[in-house]
Structure formats: structure tokens, C-alpha cells
Design brief:
The complex is a heterodimer. Chain A is of the alpha/beta class. Chain A has 7 helices and 13 strands. The chains are: A alpha/beta, B alpha+beta.
Chain lengths: 220, 483
Amino acid sequence: MTAEPILVVEDDVELGQQLCATLEKAGYAPRWWREGHTIHPDQPPDVALVVLDLMMPRVSGFTMLAQLRACSDVPVLVLSARDDASDKVKALQLGADDYMTKPFWPEELLERVRARLRRPVLQRAEILEVGGIRLDLATRDVVVNGQPCDLTRVEFEFLLALARRPGAALTRQWLVHHLLDPDREGNERTLDVHASRLRKKIGPGLIETVWGIGYRLAAS
Amino acid sequence: MKLRARLAATTLGVLTPAVFGLLVWDGYARHEAAAATLAHMTLDRVTFHNACAGAQHLGRHVRGPLDDGTPPLLARGASGEPGFGPPPNGDGPPGDRPPGPFKPFGRAAPPVVFTYAADSTPLAEASPALPFLPPDGTPWQAAPASWWQEEVVIVARAPATVTDCRYLLVRGSTVPGFLGSILPQPHVWATPIAAVLAIVLLAMQPVVRRIRRLADAARALPSTGWRLPPQPGPADELGDLAHALHTAADAVRAEMAAQTAQADALRAFVADTGHDVMIPLTVLQGHLAALRDEHPASDRVTSAMQEAHYLGGILRNLAAAARLETSHRTDPVDLTELVTRVAARHRPVAAAAGVELGHAVPDGPVFIAGDVTLLEQAVSNVVYNAVRHNRPGGHAAVTLDAHAGRFTLTVLDDGPGVSPDALARLGERGFRADETRSRGTTGEGIGLDITLRVARLHGIEVTFSAGDEAGLQVVMRGGVAAR
């Protein structure tokens, strides 16, 4: 899998080096601009994501953001040392997708980058595929890592709900409300039983329990 | 209106006794004048004609009794009443004609003259009410009269050379038709008094208007940014008052501008130093994270990470405190994104400390109206506490839910929790967030401070309770904004 290119626009030398090192270690291909550059509308940077510091010399971060948005839909994650609501609102209005204030942890940045780069859940017509799981909404067939699984109606809906939002935790309340019939004593304990059965059928490691919340489909 | 009513009452209060006094004085003066005039005119004619009969040109002449003791005859009017009446031939003496500018209600009647012969009929016996004419040579004497009486009676002694009578009694009136007067009749009085009153009230009108305008302008000062509009008018006491108010309003405006400038300077200072500190802190955190990778079991590195994390939190809280004091925005804030950001912020340190931090958000945005920075810091402080007050192997979870126009944000942990007393106190602080302002800025103190103040500012309810099995549960509830 080729490393996705990420443009880092940061004037501080130490921080820029760290950002590049962090991204590289996580499997991305960082490119580093130490100064602001005018982005020409016919030359949008060919990257998967831009990490842009607002306080840049020469060309301001806001200007670059506007120029970028004029010619590209690439996800932009803005960095700033000013924890200022006006800056945030302005950046988001100019088209930034996310805003991170310094100080931040490398893992924090990576989590935000991954969230922006997450491949959308593929759903062609009635088929949903995520990771090694394939769900056919028409026939109600389930294939996990090449192995077909025989699921009950509730188990299918359970897996479908988790598969629609991979990596995101769904609360027990929500799952009970959407999956179980309240007239037939649907409650959280019943849900846990369904989860346990589902896990046995599709195999371990795919469905994670999230403490204090519920369940999530493991991010692949 | 009150001012003018008072002024009218004062004017009337001063004028009424004055007018009354003048009327009284006028009455007496009129009597004196009338009496003197009557006496002089009578005596002049008598002297001129050297006979009492000469006085008949004055008015009606009645011959008094002669030595035979017959009581004096009174003149009779046309209809028989005694005293006054028009002369039978119509064209009487000059006094009978109405005078020039004064038109009295009653017609001025001509005076009536009674003549009396020698001392054989003492005047005192003939008419006890008549004045006593002293024998020392005083030519005439007026009868005592009240000020409001119109009738004037005098008694005069005929000159020694006159033979046809000894005394003359002349009855006249103060009606100005004949004698002229010092002051006009009372009904004529009313006009100038009413005029004075009207003038006074009218003169007050512009003054009252100026006062009202000034009062309105003063009342509106807070909403006009403490600017007093110019008050037109002469440079009198009201002008002085307006000027004084101007000066006071200017002083208030200057003071407020100074305070705003101070607050702005504080914000700028916090922002600038924040900027200079945030970048090195980020780099430091990067190094610590790398160190942790190299020494995953090192408690020292974990501790260092926690300290750096705490520093970042303090800086953010100080910035939030400054913004709470001075200015905060209201924009649509997506709580879904906010919770995701906050969870990501605390996860690295939580992981280093062996605390599992999970979060759950709805599958779409949840917008509320508020200041994104303040709200994020408010939630961040609660999550920080949930991770901090925990132990390796512990858990914390942040959950956002939205239903029927309201959102619920829950932060739950399975740490040691707080004692029931502390829980009660936390609950109280939720109600009395203002009290926390006077506290010192200790580590966790400032965090909860900020959270509660921000929640209060945004109309968000914060409740504290013990978790189902252990730990603390903090629930924030509020209304969702229609985007």
C-alpha cells in the first residue's frame, strides 16, 4: 500500500520535524513547507491531506486556506497556537475540515488525520463492505473474512449498525432502541447476550466492547 | 406639570394677599380722594358764589332746614328712593356722564348736597352718624367708611361770609365714573392677574421642556454608550446642569474605555504568551511521546507526560478565564466534533496512564449556540478529571446523545470517585458557580471553575452523581440549536 502523501505547512523547525517524523512513522509520506507559499489555482498540491499552521510568515495561513479551497477539496487540518474562537470559526468558514490547537500530542494528531482520511464505507446498492465483512442487505447473507455466517435477524441488524460506522462506538441505549423490540423485554442485558452470540459466530477481534458505552466495530 | 402647578400656586399665593391688600388700600384711598374732592369742589363753589346755593351746580341741591327747626329734606330719586338719582332735567352736572376709559357697572351718580342753617339745629342731633366737625376751624371732615363701601359723606363748614347756610353735607360715591380712581374695578383686576399667571406658566413651558429632555437623555445614557446629546438652550442654570451631566458621562465613558482596554490588553497578553509557550510545549510533548515509545514501561516518562498535559490544560484554562471575563462569541458549535476532539486530546495521556478512554457520538452533527473554545475547554476539564482521578486499568467514557431538541453529554469513570460530602459540595457549586470566582487558581479548582462558569453562561445544566458501580458521573444537559 503506497504511503498517502500529506502536506505539512509549519514554520517552526522543531515542530515541523516532529510532525513529519510522526506522520512517517504512522505510514504516511509527509511533505514539509517551512514557509507559506501562494497556491495557484491551476497547481493544487497533490496530497491526501494538508496540515496547515495559521501563523505562517510571508503568506498567512488563512490566505493559503482560501487559495487551497478555491482549487481543491483536499481535507485540511488547521493548527494554531491561538485558542481563539474567532480564528476557529473563520478557519471553518473558509473551508477547513478540522482545527487543532497547540499543544497537542502526536497521537492526537494521528487520530484526527486518520479520521479525516478514513475510507468511506463502501455501499454499492444493497451490499455493504467494510474490512473483511460483507453484508448483503437484500439476501441477508453475511461473509466474514471469506467465511459465510448464519446470523439471526437481530444479529444481522446488530452487525449492520456497527459496520455502518466502523471504529465508532455505539451506545447500548441506542442499540437497544434500534435493534430490540421493547414489548419483548428488550434491554441492555439482552443486548449483551446478542453481542456474545454474534461474536462467537463471526470470530474474535471484530467487535470490541467499549467500557461505559457499548460496542464498536474494530477499526481495520 | 408638577413644577408649573407649584409655580401657579406660588404665584396665586403671593398675588392674592397682595391684590387684597391693594384693594383695601385702594378702597380707603378712593374714599379719601372722593371725600377730598367732594369737599373741595363744594367749598369752591360756595366760595365762588358766596352762597350755599352755589353748590347746586355740583349736583342736586337740597335746601336744609332753616331756623324754624324743620329737619333736613333728603333728595329723592326719580322713583322716590332717598339719596341718589339722576337730575330731573337729564343733563345733570358733569359727574353724571360716564367717564372716559372707565365703564363702571353702576352708573356714577351725581353727589347730593344738603345744606344746614345755624347752630340752632346741631348736626350731631340731626344725624348721629355724621362726623363731628371740630370747632377749631377745620373746614371739612369725612364720615368714617369701610373700604368696600361706595358711599362717601363729608361735612363741610360754610365760610364765614356765607349767610344762607352754616353747614353742608355732601353725599357722593367712589364709583370711578365721577371721581376717577387709583385702581380699576375688581373685574378689571382679573385680566392682568390672569395674564400674569398665563405669562408665568408660558414662560415655564420651554424650561420644563428642557428639563424633561435632559432627564430623558440622562435616563438613556447607559443605552447610548454614555453619550449625552447636546442640549440646546441658553447658558443658564439648566445649561450648567447639562454641562455637568456631559462631563460626568464623559468620565464614565473614559472609565469604561479604560477598563475595556485593560481587558483587551489582558486578552492580548494571554494570547501572545500562550502562543510563545504553546509551540515549545507541543515539541516537548512530542519528545515525551517518543521517549515513551522507547521506554514503554517507564513511570517517569508517564509522569512527565502527565505534567506536560497538565501545563497545557492550565494554559488553556487561563485563556478561557480571560475570555469569560471579557468577550465570548456565539456561533453554531458542533458538539459531535467537539467531543471527538476532546477525546482525542486526552487519549494519549490516558493510554500512557493505563486508563482506557472511549467516546460515543451520534452519526451526525449536534449544534448548540455558543463559544466553541469555551465549550471545548469546559468538556475537556471534566474529561481530564475523569482520566486524572483514576488508576491503571481504569476506564473513562464520554457520551453525547441528542433527542427531542435536547442534548446529553455524559462523562463517566470508574476511578475512586468522590465522597458523598464532596459530591454534595460539587452539586452546590453547580448552582452557585459565581462563588468560585473568589477562589485561588489551584489545579483542579480552576478546571471545574471554568466548566461551571461556561455551563452557566450557555444555559447548560451540570449534575454530579456517583457512577453505578464506582467513580463519578458528570452529566451536562442543554438545548440544541436549530442550525
